[in-house]
Design brief:
Strands 1, 3, 5, 8 and 9 form a 5-stranded mixed β-sheet that branches. A hairpin with a 2-residue loop joins strand 14 and strand 15 (242-243). The longest helix has 22 residues, at 2-23. By secondary structure, this protein is α+β, with helices and mostly antiparallel strands. The chain contains 7 helices and 21 strands. The chain has 2 domains: 35-177, no CATH class; 179-426, no CATH class.
Length: 427
């Protein structure tokens, strides 16, 4: 009887040992020495096929961040200001790391680029080149990636083998491609009235400003690129928290059916950000300037100038019609009036002069650097956008990026005339 019990115990022990040998070979040192994966040149285990081909796979997601280093900084949409160039797209995020219990090197990493339109050319596993299409509108480029990690060993005798980990990530970047001027026929496109640009060579004026304009004719060439503003694009952030629609005619006061089209020089955005950064450094706490007016089409500008007569502050060759200017104020309390920047208890042209001091500093620096951001500036006691009503009147400052100084080599400056009293008398 005792012999039978001993024999039965031996059989049970051999069965248990056989199961453990098959199920958990890493417990047996002599087997482990033979089955450990080879090392890479860096001393890490090289990726090996999963020891258990039937292991379950756990799916996880991760974020992929794409950026365009040649673009204006934005988290929303890249403003394409040169459709003929190749735009580089890069991956700014890393693949997810392996958790404990997994090979530190992925079993496989696979990525694929996709373009909605235009031409996409992958450069390497971290970047691609994109050429914009000939058609205006929003274009999306995507990158999808899968990363597979396999388990290194089982957690314990009592736990099952860790599952394979399959990470899936997706990143997108959007571009706003402009309309080319060739699509504008007789001053109109898609029902929007652009109007006609003034011919500086036909002007008979002999004033200093007219001679100056002719001397810098390149600045006053009609814009070739036009951005569509409609319900889907007006709130897109194009750079430094500025939205595309902020540079369009304000729909609250000048309602008109979409689409609209605007010209916008990226240098005016760069200058506004430089100005904000400089003022922030001196304690003026604000995120961006409020845009009283950005782009004004030549058709609108001419009609308003004729209608307003002597009360108009709009010039025929205004830099606004070229997308190179902005009328700005700081309005943190959102009452449509310039804040009291100099602390004298009122909002007047002196508050606009506070901003002008910083514009002067920047423009002199731009002149020394030969920067195209140099421009003119004017301070105004009020605006001539009468549709806003007298309750929304405000002093403001005009800044532009005309790219040249006056004949003495100094930044061009002026003070806007006061036409508010004359306008009120004429009503």
């Amino acid at each position: 009887m005792r012999l039978v019990l001993v024999s039965l115990l031996i059989v049970i022990l051999l069965a248990v040992a056989g199961y453990l040998f098959v199920r958990f070979p890493e417990m047996f040192l002599w087997v482990q020495r033979r089955t450990l994966p080879p090392l890479t040149t860096q001393g890490e285990p090289a990726p090996q096929p999963s020891p258990c081909a039937t292991s379950k796979t756990e799916h996880r997601t991760f974020e992929i961040r794409l950026s365009c280093p040649d673009a204006l900084p934005t988290e929303d949409v890249v403003l394409v200001f040169d459709p003929d160039r190749t735009w580089s797209i890069r991956i700014d995020s890393a693949v997810p790391s392996a958790p404990d219990g997994y090979f530190p090197t992925p079993q496989s990493v696979k990525g694929i680029w996709k373009e909605q339109s235009g031409k996409l050319d992958p450069v390497n596993d971290r970047s691609a080149d994109w050429i914009p299409p000939n058609q205006e509108g929003l274009c999306t480029v995507e990158f999808e990636q899968t990363v597979l990690y396999t388990p290194l060993k089982s957690e314990s005798l009592l736990n099952r083998r860790l599952p394979n980990l399959l990470f899936r990530g997706k990143g997108t970047i959007r571009f706003l491609v402009p309309l080319h001027v060739a699509e504008i026929v007789d001053g109109k496109v898609n029902g929007f009235n652009v109007g006609k640009y003034p011919n500086l060579y036909k002007s008979r004026s002999t004033t200093i400003s007219a001679e100056r304009i002719r001397a810098h004719a390149k600045t006053y060439l009609p814009p070739t690129l036009w951005y569509r503003v409609d319900e889907t694009t007006k709130d897109l952030v194009i750079a430094w928290n500025y939205r595309l629609g902020e540079f369009d005619l304000d729909q609250r006061y000048r309602p008109s059916p979409y689409p609209h089209y605007i010209a916008l020089d990226p240098n005016i955005l760069r200058k506004l950000n430089d100005l904000k950064t400089r003022m922030n450094a001196d304690g003026f706490s604000f995120d961006k300037f409020d845009i009283l007016y950005g782009f004004r089409s030549p058709g609108y500008n001419r009609s308003e100038h004729v209608k307003d007569g002597e009360t108009s502050l709009k010039s025929a060759f205004s830099l606004h019609i070229y997308g190179k200017a902005a009328d700005i104020l700081i309005d943190l309390n959102r009452d449509l009036v310039m804040d009291d920047l100099n602390g004298d208890g009122k909002a007047d042209i002196q508050d606009a002069r506070v901003i002008l001091r910083y514009v002067d500093e920047l423009d002199h620096r731009y002149l020394l650097d030969g920067s195209p951001l140099v421009g003119g500036a004017g301070v105004y006691p009020h605006h001539d956008f009468w549709e806003r009503g007298d309750v929304a009147q405000s002093p403001y400052i005009h800044v532009d990026v005309r790219g040249f100084a006056n004949e003495q080599g100094n930044p061009i400056r002026w003070i806007g005339k006061n036409t508010l009293a004359r306008h009120q008398q004429s009503e």
